[in-house]
Amino acid sequence: MSNSYAAAGVDTEAGDRAVELMKAAVQRTHGPEVLGGVGGFAGMFDVSALKQFEHPLLATSTDGVGTKIAIAQALDKHDTIGQDLVGMVVDDIVVVGARPLFMTDYIACGKVVPERIATIVAGIAAACSETGTALVGGETAEHPGLMGDDDYDVAGAAVGAVEADALLGAERVRDGDVVLALESSGLHSNGYSLVRKILADASLSYSDHSADFGGVVGEVLLEPTRLYSGPLVRVLAQPALSGAIHSLSHVTGGGIAANLARVLPRGAWVEVDRSTWSPAPVFRVLSSLAGSTLESAEGTWNLGIGFFAVVSAASAAGVAAAIEAEGIRTWPVGTVSTAERAFAASDGFEQGAKGVDGGAVRLVGAYAS
Asked: In what residue span(s) does the PurM-like N-terminal domain sit (predicted)?
């Protein structure tokens, strides 16, 4: 009987091969600020540029991709999950107005398949490059006996920086501000436990071709999360729009109203007009399969809105045009009011979320056809 690590199911040589396969992709995210290259115990990033800040603040975020990974595993298609991870982690940082600096990732798997791990990390690296984020380190852990050979999960953490007087948040929001919606690319990385249940109940396989979905079901559902950090950082840096954006919201877990409420001050409220957009077919098909309405999914899926920007009324058109110039469809969905009123769940309002004692939001009207 062997008591070696290999006999226990851990292949350190496969881990080394995975690192070699991913090294070039990771190095392409490195600028002169990254020290030490790939493979060190700690990633290092030269932050001497922060000396140019009057009052630098660091912003950090951590997240994973959730059960969307189950679809990637079922189709053996792993080249989009990395972008999902970066979107979920880095796009939370820009919410406070911060520019992302660097990121680390963690992959746990039942068995290291070097090519699969390298494909996942290549996707992370490509998205990091697109968002201006250095991928400075990571870890791949093999967990035989705890996870199946083809099982894996991914998580990451990132750090960014913002000047204190440029910090975005609810305290900047004013009566009359315009709420802009930024279009999503699809489901992004939230609500997939519901998606998977709907497909199972409908006896649909991820490999099935569906005219309603417009292609192979799983491939449609793997549409990667849109990346907002790069475009928003560039828009925030435009002198003509200085101070125009008051708060930002990333529409992730919790849905539309709750995530917008988190970036409004207590006492402020917004009615989001559903008639200003038409949710994409993937949302409509899933709702139809579930025998439910789009409205019932507003607390689970983004339904076509991946981000909100709360901006001054005078600059709303300019901000929308600047974001549109970055390739993201943007449109007004409502106006902030601070007029005194009572908020009740029975009236459809959601007030605050995730421990934030924020404003109140409800969706009104009917979706455009």
From this structure: 57-162
Other Cβ atoms closer than 10 A to 204 = 16
Q: H helices of 202-325, where?
A: 217-221, 229-236, 255-261, 281-290, 316-325
At residue 1, the pLDDT reads 45
From the number of C-beta atoms within 10 Å of its C-beta (0-12, 13-18, 19+), residue 3 rates as exposed
Helix (H, G, I), strand (E, B) or coil at 87: helix
Burial of residue 333 (CB within 10 Å: 0-12, 13-18, 19+) is: buried
Tens of pLDDT, residue by residue over 294-320, are: 999 999 999 999 999 999 999 999 999
Q: Are 293 and 303 in contact (CB under 8 A)?
A: no
Longest Cα separation, the chain:
76
**Bridge partners (DSSP) listed for residue 57:** 162
Domains of the chain: 12-38+46-165 (3.30.1330.10), 170-364 (3.90.650.10)
pLDDT at 352 over 90: no
Whether residue 253 contacts residue 316, with contact meaning beta carbons closer than 8 Å, is answered with no
The answer to whether 285 and 279 have CB atoms below 8 angstroms apart is: no
